[in-house]
Amino acid sequence: MGKALQAASGTPVTVYGIPNCDQVKKARRWLAAHQVEHAFHDFKKLGLDATLAERWIATAGSARVINRKGTTWRALDDDSKALADKASGAIALVCTHPSLVKRPVLDCAGTLSIGFDPDHYATLFT
């Protein structure tokens, strides 16, 4: 592609995830191919702070933010899993286990996109 795409608002784009996740890799390749400048926040190295987790859960809901199909979820005991049913518990859970977050989370000027969908990404950028 010859022309760089930009966020509709012209504001920064951040991709949150872990570098070895296939969906994160696809999202980052899509952004690079479309020349979308973005920062990458690696959960493994940088963790996830409670303020960010709280905003994501308030915006999208814990059912959308927490991946209940992954190995991290399956490894949790029942008491830990029960924490996901309330916002405060879900926030604590994803901060303690950032790998529970569905990936990637793309933050484009406060607009969240959870999971990789190339068609949705195309609507976020002009």
How would you characterize this protein structure?
By secondary structure, the protein is α+β, with helices and mostly antiparallel strands. The protein has one domain: Glutaredoxin, CATH 3.40.30.10. The chain has eight helices and four strands; from the N terminus they run βαβααααααββα.
- Identify the CATH homologous superfamily: Glutaredoxin
pLDDT averaged residue by residue: 90
What is the rounded distance between the termini?
13 Å
Name the CATH architecture: 3-Layer(aba) Sandwich
CATH fold-level topology = Glutaredoxin
* Largest sheet, strands/sense/barrel: 4 strands, mixed
What share of residues is helical?
Answer: 40-55%
> How large is the radius of gyration?
15 Å
**Global morphology:** globular
Count of helical stretches: 8
Number of domains: 1
Order of helices and strands: EHEHHHHHHEEH
Strand percentage, roughly? 5-15%
Strand order within the widest beta sheet = 2-1-3-4
Question: Strands, helices and their partners?
Answer:
Blueprint: E1 13-17, H1 22-33, E2 39-42, H2 43-46, H3 50-60, H4 62-65, H5 71-75, H6 78-82, H7 87-96, E3 105-108, E4 111-114, H8 118-124
Parallel strand pairs: 1-2
Antiparallel strand pairs: 1-3, 3-4
Condensed summary:
46% of the residues lie in helices and 13% in strands. The protein is built from eight helices and four strands; from the N terminus they run E-H-E-H-H-H-H-H-H-E-E-H.
Sum up the structure in keywords.
126 residues, alpha+beta, Glutaredoxin, 8 helices, disordered N terminus
